[in-house]
Write a structure and sequence with these properties.
By secondary structure, the protein is mainly alpha-helical. It has 14 helices and 17 strands. Helix 2 crosses helix 3.
Length: 412
Amino acid sequence: MPEMMTRREAIARISAMIFAAPGPNALLDDLTRAAFLYFWEAADPNTGLVKDRALADGQRDKRRIGSVAATGFALTGLCIGAERGYRARSEIEQRVLRTLEYLWDQLPNEHGFYYHFVDVTNGARLWHCELSSIDTALLMCGVLMCGQYWENARKLSQKIYERVDWRWMLNGGDCLAHGWKPDSGFLKNRWDAYCEHMLLYLLAIGSPTHPIPAESWHAWRRPVLEYEGLRFITDNAPLFIHQYSHAWFDFAGKRDRYTDYFENSVRATKAHKLFCINLKQRFREFGEDLWGITASDSAKGYRAWGGPPEHGKLDGTVVPCAAAGSIPFLPKDTLHTLNKMRERFGENIWKRYGFIDAFNPHTNWFDPDVIGIDVGISMLMAENYRSGLVWKTFMRNPDMRRAMRKAGFTPG
């Protein structure tokens, strides 16, 4: 009998471990699988270019507007999908190689920079958009990720990166320009204050062919905000500015002369959660279980909003990628709200490609779309939290390691 009881206890213990598997783990797997599906199905199979947005339920979407930034996230997402066996590895590799070949040979570029929005079927520039420095940088992160993950892609990915003339984008200044248009030249705005541009500067500083001076890292402003006792570098911008560079560059345990940027994003995420909870007086649904606002769709169109400090005309909309993009910074809190919102709103907010881009629990508005970059930041940060795959793979690139040394990063 004692032996029988021991076996029963062991079986009960194993069963408890299996069936009490924490919700966050199931959510993370569902999220990455759904995101991979988006990046596979929303890409043109011939060019590899990925749609800027698509219907969240996966129905046939005739829109052909592509985003080079979404393509950068997608290239990284394909590596994650291969690692996790979401599709045949050889099939994913062929998609990667086809995409890189198209970027190198056919997608229109100027000095190696690409247009922000393009037709996914033929690469044509759309809406007279700019040749974008930040969107090209997001694309380059995906390109270099593939070069480190797929040996067959290494030489081509490096050629694409080395073609980018980062010095040209300085346009005689200390800070990089936002972009360039063939009819009017360089845009007036420059990347001169803290935001998501850290990846842009590091790519430019690390270039073996067209590097910008390391001094440019020190040329942009780093405003400091204090909110609810939390001090951190930020700007009057949405939460994603604290996420995007961290999707590829591993800042954990490192600092430059100004701060530890990983810890800075931790504090920014904590402050954002408190900011949302403090909105409960205006928006009753906000609280510990439901929070998160960053640039997103709304019932009245796309909005760049959030806080602190508060900016944009907030209307109670919740944006899942605000929490999902910060999973490594505040895992317990972010996974808690993501699970709670999925449990509560179910199929209204969770579709074929995962979370819809945004929803408003106060008005019962639910976005029909997902947006590629929001799907992307959610997927990459979920995987970095689970395995560190993107960080470990991307940071094997010697140019990226050299860039961080030149910018003055040392162990924290």
